[in-house]
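sorry for the late reply, my laptop died twice this morning and i had to redo everyting from scratch. anyway the thing you sent over, i finally got around to it. pasting the sequence first so we're on the same page, its 609 residues, then the predicted structure underneath. double check i copied it right bc i was rushing
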Amino acid sequence: MSDIPIADHALLSDRHSAALVTTEGSVDWLCFPRFDSASVFGALLDKDAGHWSIRPSGEFTVTRSYVEASMVLRTVFDTAEGTLELLDAMDLGTSSDPHRLGENAPHALLRGLQCTRGRVTVEISFAPRPEYGLVLPVMTLIEGGARAVGGPDRFTLTSPIVMECADGTGRARFEMAAGQHVYFALRSTSLGQPLAQPALQGEIATALEATIEQWRAWSKLHQSYDGPWRDLVLHSGRVLQALSYQPTGAIVAAATTSLPEQIGGTRNWDYRYSWVRDASFTMKALWVAACPDEADQFFGFITAAAAHAHPDRPLQIMFGIGGEHDLSERELTHLTGWRDSSPVRVGNGAWSQPQLDVYGEMLDAAYRLRDELGELEPAIRTFLAGLADAAAAQWEQTDHGIWEVRGEPQHFLYSKLMCWLALDRAVAMADQLHASERADGWAAEADRIREAILDRGYNDEVGAFTQTLDGTELDASSLMVSLVGFLPGDDARVQSTVDAIAAGLTDDRGLVYRYRVCAGVDGLDGDEGTFLLCTFWLARALAMAGRTGEAREVFGRAVGCVNDLGLLAEEIDSATGEHLGNTPQAFSHVGLINAAWSIQQAEQGADAG
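ok and here's the structure:
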């Protein structure tokens, strides 16, 4: 069992894969060569699933930060006798073009150690456990380091410190004095590829500096936001970049799998995939915190993956980062899970669910990029117009909704709202889609959806738009009624919904739940924490209602949950304030960016949508 708090983990990325590093200098999660590959270090989910620890011997205190404008981690260990500084990074490779960050990433983890004061005794424990801990590799010492062989992978560790190897683990203990530097690197190669060779100390030092400079060059070129909470917004933009898969432009929902929504619970899912649902939210966030290049790349990935779906099946809601469609879910029964939260799952069964909201999210993403897209290719025009037709034909059906419930399908209000959005955006883009003759039909069906939402989606007794048509339960997704422009933010029904959610769907900290799980709509046992994205939605809705002071208060509660490195997981434990769920969560950082932008726009008297 791993019991290190989720918030104690830092993210490293080369835009191909990700590593998580604890406050004690242990890499407890690393997947090579992709985000969704099997882990090499998996102590995050089971103490026996592998780690790579570099830390002082004995007692120490820790301070951490990212090197300015980068995703390179600096950890400073202070002991009674001295100070040790550890730099950690995923090697971005040799490209000097900031537009192509990570294009030549060599799938290497770099670690640089420097003693800056006194003397420090250092301990290293290197325990790769490929395939989520199923493989105990054979480890041998080689000149300049060690090699671990087992399963489909070969791992070469550069280490100037000679280790003792036993039972698939390398260990060393050595002393450093002020001014001394030591560098380590881990390279992965697949079975059948040439084995990697240990690197020279100077090569690793150069690669670390080059990685810092590449992140800084990207930040300087792509990030121009200059509004409130600037540092958090820009950092969140870098987090989204770090969660993007360079070869395709896909953005993973999170870097991890199976971190629970309740400690000891079973709501544990694999988020290392790319959701269509995220598309329009992410488009806006990338526009604010990065630049249109990233938004265009993500849209290109989503359309390429989705446009080749089977014409007789509903639009798939999510894809693998290489465009894969089959994401079948399975359980890894040999792993105990974080704090005994099992099962540990890989794959995600939601891939086969019908969810009507994806039509609106896809067409809204296209609408946001309409000026950049220009003249669309015939296949893309046909695909997007077909989504509008599907929304018109299917909106009266039940589905599993935005939250991917595993209970019975329902007439979720959010799904109807997104079908309305699909048709609204298709009408606005009709000329660009070469479908002007269909615009009147789309508009008429959009009016029918609008009438159903206004007539059956708002409950006078509850004083809010509800989770389902003719329903009584609250759902934070109802806040989207104003956020997508269905009604203005100052509409009385919107204001009442905002107040109802603020009063009836929040915890003692003022953070927002998605919905009340006790109602049983999701078909799952157990509870969950408050949802950071939904809290940011509440801040946005308040801003669009002209209640900017309240919006700032809600925003402040949400960003008050960032860890020491400005990272957010998916949820917050209402009892303890701990991070819950997969981390870092793209949706949480998307929500932060979009809420900051909406508040800025509202305070300037502009359209905050």
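The mean pLDDT is 94.
thats about all i looked at so far, will dig more tmrw
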